Amino acid sequence: MRNNIEKYRRMEGVTEEDFQDRELENEKHWMLYDSALQYEASSDWVQAAEKWKACVNETLRQTDECRVQCEVASQRLPEDRGVDSVDGVYEKAAALSLSLLSCRQSCVTQIATRPGRISAQEDFLPSQLEHLHIAQFKAGDISGAVQTLRSLLLFYPSDKDSLNNLQLYYETLGGDTESQDTQPEVVTYISHSLEEKKLLYFGMENLDFSFIDPDLWTPEDVVPESLRDIWRAEKEKMNEKMKVGVTITMDDEVLNGTNRVVLDGVMTEKECGRILQLATAAASAGDGYRGRRSPHTPHETFEGLTVLRAVKLAQEGLVNQSDARLLHELGERARVLLHSYFRSPSGLFISFTHLVCRSAIAGDQEGRLDLSHPVHVDNCLLEPETKQCWREPPAFIHRDLSAILYLNDNFDGGQLFFTNRDAKTVTARVKPSCGRLVGFSSGPVNPHGVTAVTSGRRCALALWFTKEKLYRDMVSIMTSADSTVILLRSSLSPERSRGRGRVTGGRDEL
Ligand SMILES: O=C(O)CCC(=O)C(=O)O
Ligand SMILES: [Fe+2]
């Protein structure tokens, strides 16, 4: 029902007055949020800035209200922690006050969860401030942008992109740097929150109290060293696991070519399952490719999902947020592995990620002679007759390295194969399976294609990397749609590193 209401709200001619609802008050910030996004999409920066500002204020107001409710609602005395518990009256009193603080902290999650949805929008308030300062800047309100950015910097004081942007704003302002202060409500919000977090982490360290921090911006020094050590050890264990599992299965020699590699063990079975499920959920959420004929063959259907689309679906609560994040992380995992394998001296950036499933159309496979994906080169237009490869648009000429991360093997056909420049002489074949990563240079030494998928559904993550910074997949809110920044931020947590820049490059597409 909630989804329907949101759908009606987006329909032409429908106004807010058409929705008289008692719960509407609690949803006010979501209405502002959605209309701010709409103004942003139509580049109406004045209106966008106005709506984002109202949204920030409404979010702060509702958070305050929610926090007050924690005090009003009596806190339940924590249950005895089992028969061996030695909890005395002091421990109980401490636990009671910690519960109150934890309740207050949980308001962040509550306010950031759309009604009817299961997961909260991560980094909700900071991301609104980010949208706001950009809208203000684009609307020409530089002083406003400075004030907002300074408020944002209270959350992430050393964020390079924000500091660069602040510098840019100061330069635009021409020297008047100190007059714009931070928003006082944000200062209060942060200082209250930090005080609570300190006590809650103390409780976690010393009183066995459990607390899940709802924020990504919490400074590291608020978390006690001992807890950080535990987290670090867990992370290292994870990293080791990832490295240990990966093996080099085929190199240039076995693959009979240049700059080709097959690595195995890049994903676990569980991860493959999660991404396959994400593809299914995205398809049933009405992704554009659902049930579409493949662009390459009439005998197969083709579904495609980009990271950006996955994030949007996650925000709408239609797919799992952590699965959308995993999609992004897998690109990064492949990048690190291939960068290290090919020892490329320059940087390597993800340019485009596409989760693609190809399904055989049952009953339409008899006597089939074509391919699932005809032989091609990824960064130039191959002309097999002359063996020329034209590095010009519409080829994706900025692609330097291609990779395909396979997710399953329960289908027939669907082998990747490499050929000579004649597009006929097959030089190597690769059979997909879960966690298998094929990497190869995107140029004319590596023409390749995919044999017909004659039964079942073959899913893979296609990735392209570029050495040109300009073409990296910025997914920054400066050019692309909302909220991808949330994904990036959360996926880079807990280091809090926010690898975004303000220079944006051309967007890749398939
Ligand atoms: O899925 C594959 O194995 C290869 C796909 C491919 O070559 C492409 O999308 O450019
Ligand atoms: Fe390709």
UniProtKB/TrEMBL annotation:
PROSITE patterns named among the record's database cross-references: FE2OG_OXY
Record-linked PANTHER family: LEPRECAN 1, PROCOLLAGEN-PROLINE 3-DIOXYGENASE
The keyword Repeat is assigned to this record: yes
Organism annotation: Dicentrarchus labrax (European seabass)
Family membership noted in the UniProt record: Belongs to the leprecan family.
Gene Ontology biological process: collagen metabolic process
UniProt-recorded Gene Ontology molecular function terms: iron ion binding; L-ascorbic acid binding; procollagen-proline 3-dioxygenase activity
Cofactor(s) recorded in Swiss-Prot or TrEMBL: Fe cation; L-ascorbate
EC number from the UniProt entry: 1.14.11.7
Domain Fe2OG dioxygenase: 353-467
Protein name: procollagen-proline 3-dioxygenase
Keyword Cell division among record annotations: no
One GO cellular component, as annotated: endoplasmic reticulum
Keywords associated with the record: Dioxygenase, Endoplasmic reticulum, Glycoprotein, Iron, Metal-binding, Oxidoreductase, Repeat, Signal, TPR repeat, Vitamin C
InterPro entries xrefs: Leprecan_dom (IPR056585), Oxoglu/Fe-dep_dioxygenase_dom (IPR005123), P3H (IPR039575), Pro_4_hyd_alph (IPR006620), Pro_4_hyd_alph_FE2OG_OXY (IPR044862)
